[in-house]
UniProtKB/TrEMBL annotation:
InterPro entries: Alpha/beta_knot_MTases (IPR029028), PUA-like_sf (IPR015947), RsmE (IPR006700), RsmE_MTase_dom (IPR046886), RsmE_PUA-like (IPR046887), tRNA_m1G_MTases_N (IPR029026)
Family that this chain belongs to: Belongs to the RNA methyltransferase RsmE family.
UniProt main location, coarse: cytoplasm
PANTHER family reported for this sequence: 16S RRNA (URACIL(1498)-N(3))-METHYLTRANSFERASE, RIBOSOMAL RNA SMALL SUBUNIT METHYLTRANSFERASE E
Localization annotation: Cytoplasm
SUPFAM superfamilies: alpha/beta knot (SSF75217), PUA domain-like (SSF88697)
Entry EC no(s): 2.1.1.193
Keywords: Cytoplasm, Methyltransferase, rRNA processing, S-adenosyl-L-methionine, Transferase
Protein name as annotated: Ribosomal RNA small subunit methyltransferase E
Originating organism: Ignavibacterium album
Role noted for this protein: Specifically methylates the N3 position of the uracil ring of uridine 1498 (m3U1498) in 16S rRNA. Acts on the fully assembled 30S ribosomal subunit.
């Protein structure tokens, strides 16, 4: 819920009842909507001057605003109030490989964000496609996903080379592997520690990759073999739901 003040009266509105827009152009009193959000606001929803809208900056705040003026390619809105959302899982880092199937990769990426994961590391696995990861494209997808899921925190998206680079990151390294002896459980994880959850591509991580990662632990997610995107979503669900 969000606290909204209008004409001196405060009311609670459920976030599930709102349409959320995004803008990174704001001051203490004003927000500007441009590009797709401007078009969506004025042409799809046909909001006019004087109408109330909700806008997130992707940095933890959702603003309740009133449209003050509409121009050819942008609109201005006055900030009436705002609410803040905490990052629920600041120490969870999901390390996922580029997958051959782009649709499955995007599906897993979006579901991580919907479940509140705000640290995503993309790496190139030995058995994955040798395709460059388009960070800018997925930042745009992340914006659309937080708007759809009514969240205020954009994830931090990093693209690295191979899994070996994770050795330079401080924190627990957790590999998910079908044949691991210990089944994964949320109670295993200390949320106050920095944790890196590492997923292999189809066919799994190679022996070389596993050996190259120092001080790691291995866990299984299920008795049956899971697709990479299924394993990613299951692990995120176990940790967050």
């Amino acid at each position: 819920m969000i606290l909204v003040t209008t004409n001196g009266y405060s009311t609670l509105e459920f976030l599930s009842d709102i349409e959320l827009f995004f803008s990174d152009e704001l001051s203490d009193k004003k927000i500007i909507l441009k590009d797709d959000d401007f078009i969506h606001c004025t042409r799809v929803f046909r909001y006019k001057a004087g109408d109330k809208v909700f806008v997130t900056d992707g940095k933890g705040k959702i603003y309740h605003c009133e449209i003050s003026s509409i121009h050819k390619n942008e609109l201005e809105a006055l900030i009436l109030s705002y609410t803040e959302q905490e990052i629920k899982y600041p120490n969870f880092h999901f390390c996922i490989p580029i997958l051959k199937n782009k649709d499955r990769f995007r599906f897993a990426f979006e579901k991580l964000i919907e479940l509140g994961i705000t640290n995503i590391i993309i790496y190139k696995a030995d058995r994955a496609v040798s395709e460059k990861f388009n960070v800018d494209k997925y930042k745009k997808i992340a914006v659309e996903t937080i708007k759809q899921s009514l969240q205020a925190n954009l994830p931090v998206i990093k693209s690295i080379g191979t899994i070996t680079e994770l050795n330079s990151y401080e924190g627990n390294k957790i590999i998910f592997e079908q044949n691991a002896e210990i089944k994964f459980d949320k109670n295993i994880i200390d949320e106050s520690d920095i944790n890196y959850f590492i997923f292999g591509p189809e066919g799994g991580l190679t022996e070389r990759e596993i050996k190259s990662l120092r001080n790691h632990k291995k866990y299984s997610l299920a008795e049956n073999r899971l697709r990479t995107e299924t394993a990613i979503i299951k692990a995120a669900s176990v940790l967050t739901l």
